[in-house]
Amino acid sequence: MSDSESAKTQMAPGAAGRLTAAASRSGATTGKPPAVVTEGLTKRFGERVAVNRIDIELPAGVVSGFVGPNGAGKTTTIQMLLGLMRPTSGTAQVLGHPISEPAAYLARVGALIESPSFYPTLSGRRNLEVLTRLGRLDRHRVAGVLELVELTDRAGDLVRSYSLGMKQRLGVAVALLPDPELVILDEPTNGLDPAGIREIRSLLRSLTDRGITVFVSSHLLSEIEAICDHLVMIESGRIAFQGSIDEMLAAQHSELLAMPEHAHDLVALVALCEQAGHPARIDGDAARVQADGDWAAELNRLAMAGGITLAGLQRTRASLEEAFFAITDRSATRGTDGTDGTD
Ligand SMILES: Nc1ncnc2c1ncn2[C@@H]1O[C@H](COP(=O)(O)OP(=O)(O)OP(=O)(O)O)[C@@H](O)[C@H]1O
Ligand SMILES: [Mg+2]
User: Fold this and answer.
1) Distance from the CA of 273 to the center of ligand 2, in angstroms?
2) CA nearest to 184, candidates 117, 94, 124, 103
3) Which of 138-152, 218-232, 241-255 is predicted with the least confidence, judged by mean pLDDT?
4) Which numeric CATH code is attached to 255-316?
5) d(CA 278, ligand 2 centre) in Å
6) CB 45 near ligand 1, within 6 Å
7) In sequence order, what DSSP letters do the residues of 6-21 get, joined into one string?
8) Regarding beta strands 63-67 and 230-235, do their DSSP bridges make them parallel or antiparallel, or are they unpaired?
9) Architecture of domain 3-250 in this structure
10) For ligand 1, mutation pick of 41, 43, 45 (most atoms within 8 Å of CB)
11) Atom 30 in ligand 1: residue holding the nearest Cα
């Protein structure tokens, strides 16, 4: 099988299970049973299918990102996993227990769904203490989780004086209060500036050092890709990709970026590449050519023979964000594969 064929096989939505198995082999998992497994999980709201027969498997002990555009079905999926919403069909297990019995696992799960709400006229510490009372949790955990989210210094201040980033960190602190094995966070970086996003990222990374499994959603891959070991990508309620970040990048075509000295040579340059069997397109003042790096010298020779001088020639690899759009575009144009005839 050629590289490009194997790339297509890996990225087919139906191949999600195989990818997860490959992720296990590549050491992305810790040998523990998966933290979350869903089988054909589906949620309809009237005619609309918000979550469409998804099969996901989250390895334990790592950070899994749950990425997809607005309205893709992330919050709906998370609500079903937390027993807050009943699926229309399909099943799921969280920490080995079916989601139809949330009482069996919720004590071991911490969650933050969309923006957390707090009493603005109480301090951060007092808010957490109130929550430990309401949730019958150990009050002695408050100081430790404040330390973990780096809010100890401001814990005595009223929440209404907190920045958005501090409120998000306090939200993560709430999720950590029960001393969870699994933390599920829905868009914890939403609305944060780059510094706030970095703080949340390093906080989430530090959780896996403590053996906690993290499932974190975002509509922007770029906000979480740096900390995820495993990715689940959802688009219009369907899984577009799941597997390790390395696999996703490995499945991408490498490209050459060739810049002719004169922009009017671009069309001819693209034609030359196409004739040589390498798909190419114009991107700004360069030709983007699907080819491995070792074809660069040949491209240079071909261009010269065709009377085109190259002012620049470099190897590139699609970024993860580009990879995501390539995959979602492909799954959208492929349409149904005969098994998802639900809409
Ligand atoms: N209670 C509801 N009633 C009707 N439709 C709903 C309901 N909740 C969600 N939906 C629809 O289900 C789809 C998925 O919504 P969901 O909130 O799960 O997406 P999301 O991926 O979390 O998006 P975002 O990034 O905007 O938070 C959307 O089309 C949404 O309009
Ligand atoms: Mg959402």
Assistant:
1) 43
2) 94
3) 241-255
4) 3.30.70.270
5) 40
6) yes
7) HHHHHHSGGGHHHHHH
8) parallel
9) 3-Layer(aba) Sandwich (3.40)
10) 45
11) 71
Q: For residue range 108-122, what is the model confidence (pLDDT) as tens digits?
A: 999 998 777 899 999
Q: What does residue 231 show for φ and ψ, rounded to 5 degrees? A: -130, 140
Q: Mean pLDDT, to the nearest integer, of 128-154?
A: 93
Q: How many residues does the chain have?
A: 343
Q: Where in the chain is the domain with CATH 3.30.70.270?
A: 255-316
Say which amino acid occupies 328. Answer: T
Ligand 1 lined by 167 (C-beta under 6 Å): no
Q: Which of 65, 64, 100 is nearest to 81 (CA)?
A: 100
Distance CA 90, CA 343 (A): 16
Sheet holding 286-290, edge to edge: 280-283, 286-290, 254-260, 310-317
Q: Within 10 Å of residue 48's Cβ, how many Cβ atoms? A: 10
Ranges in the chain annotated CATH 3.40.50.300: 3-250
Query: Does 219 contact ligand 1 (Cβ within 6 A)?
Result: yes
